[in-house]
Amino acid sequence: MSQQYPPPGPGFGPPPPQYAPAQPPYAAPQYAQAPQQPPPYAQAPSQPAADGPDFLAVDKRNAVVVDASGVAFESSGLSIEFRWPEIRSVHYQASPNGKALMVAVVHMDGRFFECVVEAKPRSRLQEWFPRLAWVLGHYRPVG
Q1: Residue 43 placed within a domain
Q2: Which of 39, 61, 66, 119 has the most crowded Cβ, counting Cβ within 10 A?
Q3: Is 117:58 a contact under the CB 8 Å cutoff?
Q4: Domain count of the chain?
């Protein structure tokens, strides 16, 4: 004699038909072939990144670095680097409360990434703005 169990709760079993994948689950996804040569912005390991001025803003959890290789963000232990050829633009401003520097990188494909660095003391924010503007102008001159 088989014992009957109640039907599983939500979240178990196959998805309802309206959420089913367009392809059968056994079909392998089609991917474009990646180029075999390295991207043009890759640096040789022997090339130093300190060819020009740099900018650094750091607080307890976050950091923004702008140097000859590009822009790097660190946020709560996670980091991401953007090389100059993959950056469409870099924007920065004070936070609405005037206590932090907000820096955004717009990637060539339109995605954007943001990092916020707290300025303690608050006067440090006014020191960061001219330095950041000068370093960005060095690597990304306007006009």
Answers
A1: no
A2: 66
A3: yes
A4: 1
Residue 78: count of CB within 10 angstroms of its CB: 8
In a domain, 93, yes or no: yes
Q: Structural domain of residue 133, as residue ranges? A: 55-139
Q: Is residue 7 part of a domain?
A: no
Amino acid at 126: Q
Angle at 57 (CA atoms; ends 56, 58), nearest 5 degrees:
115
- Write the CATH number for 76: 2.30.29
Q: What is the pLDDT of residues 3-20, one digit of tens each?
A: 555 555 454 444 555 544
Helices (H), the chain: 123-139
| Residue 49: both structure tokens together | 């990144």
Tens-place pLDDT, residues 42-60: 444 334 455 789 999 999 9
Cβ(36)–Cβ(53) below 8 Å? no
Q: How far apart are CA 126 and CA 119, in angstroms?
A: 9
Q: Count of residues for the chain?
A: 143
Phi and psi at residue 24, to the nearest 5°: -60, 145
Q: Count Cβ neighbours within 10 Å for each residue of 30-48 and write b for 16 or more, e otherwise.
A: eeeeeeeeeeeeeeeeeee
